Amino acid sequence: MADEIPKIEETPKAALASFIAELEEYYYPWYDSETNRLYYFWTGAQWLALISGFASALLAACLKGEQISDWGYGRIALIVLPLLGSLASTFIVQSRVGELEALRESGRETIQRLANQARVDFAAATSPEQFTEVHRDLVTAVSALEKEQSRGFQRIVPKMMAFSSQKPPQRK
Question: What is the pLDDT at residue 54?
Answer without folding.
Answer: 94
